[in-house]
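input
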Amino acid sequence: MSTPKKVHENVPEFKKMYQEILSKVIEARNASGLTKNQLAEILGVDRRKVYSMEAGDVSVSLLLRSADLFSIEVKLSYEAF
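output
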């Protein structure tokens, strides 16, 4: 029996949007001089979560919190299938 795929793996638009926001967050973190460990401390999460997020593992809530911290505007759109 195969493992079911996560929704984001089947929706290319989601993956593209996630990667665009993630790129901005990583750029802003680097520009601010913060390390991944420092970002994790500011956000109150284990450092492994930030490392995983930056490696592309989906954590929408952490990504949005990070974007908010760096004042990155995020516009989400939704279209029913």
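quick obs: The radius of gyration is 14 Å.
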